[in-house]
Amino acid sequence: MSRTRVLGVPMPWGTFPETNLRTYVRCRGGPSGLWFLSLDVTHPAMLTARLLGIPYSLGHLVTEVHGGTRRYAGRRGRRGPRYELEVRTDDPSRATRPLDAWPTDRFHACSVSAGALWRTPVVHEPWPLFAGAVVRLEQSLLSAAGLPESADPPLVHISPGVGPVRLGFPRHVA
Prior knowledge:
Blueprint: E1 5-6, E2 9-10, E3 18-26, E4 32-41, E5 56-66, E6 69-76, E7 82-94, H1 98-101, E8 108-113, E9 116-123, E10 130-139, H2 141-144, E11 157-158, E12 166-167, E13 171-173
């Protein structure tokens, strides 16, 4: 997350790593969005999103760049699920297939809290995406979420990120 704003207010130390496990949904009566199964962050203020049913947890996260290789590692709490991922850029050109942008073009987060469905706007520029490949992956995030391991190879995109990220006012979905 880069230069994060919540309800229009800049967060102190608003640039921090985040790891999310998500799926894609269409919110009732609205556009497509994200449904988060888990979100691990280093910024404790993001835990307030739990009030809307968004499953943030504090984690120990590391991001490193070494030439064309990027390493992402994290663990939720002291004994929670963990991951370690190394990816490399296969091609310095931008990813241009229709499926390349689809996973990052969701500008709403959907959640359930107090028995109600909520939609929270997430505003940021389009992600600059580049093709990538997995060098190494070890993770327990899927099993912790009750999901099976994927039989398909991972779809990998690399991005320098976007910013600023602005989280808008949550709206109840009728």
